[in-house]
Each structure stands twice: as C-alpha cells, then as structure tokens.
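Good day; I would like, with your permission, to put a structural problem before you. What I wish to show you is a protein chain and, alongside it, a tokenised description of its three-dimensional fold. Please examine both parts with care and let me know of anything in them that strikes you as inconsistent. Thank you for your consideration; the sequence and its tokens are set out here:

***
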Amino acid sequence: MKWSGYAQFRYNRLLENNPDFKCESCDKSWGDNQSFFFRRARLTYQGYVSDRVFAYVQMDYASTIKSKSDQTENWNFIQLRDAYFDYGLDAKNEYRIRLGLTKVPFGFDNMQSSSVRLPMDRSDALNSGAPNERDMGAFFLWAPEKVRKLQRDTLTSNGFKGHGDYGVFMIGIYNGQSANKPELNDQVHIAAKLSYPIKIKSQIIEPGISAFAGRWVMGPDLLTTGVGSTSDKEYNDQRVAVGVMVQPKPIGFTAEYTKGVGPEFNATTKTIETKNLEGAYATLSYRIHNQKIGVIQPFFRAQYYNGGKKLEKDARHYHVNEWEGGVEWMVNKGMEITASYLNGHRRMSDLSVQDYNEKGHLLRLQVQFNY
C-alpha cells in the first residue's frame, strides 16, 4: 500500500483578449474576475491488500462546491474521486471484478489521468459523455499479464501518455448520473470498451472502441423554472467512440470521434429534447528526452463538438471549435511546467442565456507537482 498524488496550480489570464470567453465544464478560472487557481489537488492510497484484492481510493482537496441557497461557488473542498476494489478471478489477476466508484470505460480521453494528459482540459466531445469521468458500478476487466504491465508501468511513466490499468476489455453497469450524484431512476447504464496496445519495434499503438447506453434523468438542480421537459425527466443517453493512441516515441498522436444521442436544450421550443450529437479531437505531440533538462513535449490539439451537455443547466446546447498549442516540460519526476496558447469559438444556449456566442484566445500556465 502506498500514498501518492499530484497538484495542478494554474493561471489563465495572460494574453487574454475576451474576459467573457469561458468554459464551465473545463477550468473555472477562465475569464473575468479570476486569478490563481488549484485545478486539481489529489491524494491517492492504493495497493494490494492480498494476492487478489486491490484497493484504490483517491481524494481531491481542491474541489468546487456550489451553494444550494444562492448557487455561489466555494473552492477547495475535499471530495471522493475514486473508491474501487478489484478482485482477481485467477492467480495472475488477468480476470478481475471491480466494484465501487471508478472511471467509466468510455474514450481514451476520459480514462487517461489528468496528471499525464498534455492539453490542460479534456475534450468537450468525449467528456460530455461521461462528465466527471466516474460513476458507481460493477465491472468485469480482462487483460493478459504482459499487457497490464505495459499499460500500468510503461505507458504512464517517463513522459508517456497512456490511460493506465483499465484492461484490454472492460464491461459493466453503473448508476449513470455521474460521480458523487445520487441515482434518480430504476435503470442502470451499461458501458464497454475494447482496446489493445500493439508494440511495433519501439512504438506502441493502441486502437480502441467504446460505447455506453442508458437513461439519463434531468435532476431538479439541472432544470430552470419554465424549461420544458419530458414528464419523467428521462432521456435516451447513448454513445459510441472510436480512436487510436500512439505513444510519443518520439512522435505521439491521439484522436477520437464520438457520435450518439442525448438530452439537449432547444432554444426555439425552449424545451429539452433527445437530439443527435457528435464531436472529435486530435492531438499531435513530440517527445524530447534529455538527461540534463528532463522531458520536453510540444503538442497541438484541435477539437469540435456539436451537442448537449447533460450535466449542465438545461442540458445546454454547445457548438465548439477550438485549437491549442503548447509545451510541457517535465523538469523531474516531482515537477512539470506547461504553457498552452488556446484559441476558440464557443456557442451555447440554455433557458436563461439563449445565445452565448464568444470567441477568444489566452495563454494558460500550469505547474504540476507530483508526490
């Protein structure tokens, strides 16, 4: 058993040309009246308590909580992010059952830890499918021993950008209302993913496909008075994603595309409807490893998304086009510095703001401490 963690300290106001250009589901310190910010501050306790039982508990002591009375945001609360337990069905733990609060098997972008991702925030397209990335459920995982070692050790260390130990195949059921949210109906979501890392000489290429399906409930905290919805507040929530992840040896590349249906605000009818959605992103990077200065990785990402965000007020409709380019410098194992220039155009609509249409650019700075 061991303790570990990381903290991300950010400042986003340099070269900012539009203080009204913001992203609620990304970094809340974008835009007007914002300054220094802890985006994440994690503390993890994990390890094998027996030959077949693995425990993983992760807390974030920089979570943002909204007041129920006036909806003001309060920062730096402790929140449970993961609490799951694996039981190995065989001596090598190649077949496992996972129970608890864990990441939903949907998309490389969601399963990849924020501590190793190059862009500072996840893509709108993939993250809107599994906001907060996690939920409470029961899952079955399978991966050969050599693949588990590759995913767990090689891909998540020394500047590589893997998604960790989530198996070659993972399938399960979960509540479907996102992490730290109560279940609101008698149905569960089902999700599955299949991906296999292939080693070709020194390069590691991992294609993958994932999907989920269920019924999403618009809880009372997500509905504005006066917005129209179905009688039971339930909506079809279904997606599929395909992608590929190439580790930076030295050129890295990750791309994913998702398509599906989900709840979305319609500004014309002022109602929430089940509508089609789609989006994609692509990230290109280059890894430079120098014994004296550490690991330097320039990167560039472009993304777009057209659809609703089910965990936001009135299942806001979004149309996003955005690109960012930057560089990550891993000074040593204890500290990383990232600078990223972002340029985007975000349109959104809900009942209270029916035509948010803002363009902007800004330079984002982050120092990450690993401990």
Observations:
- Helices lie at 108-111, 124-127, 145-154.
- The mean pLDDT is 94.
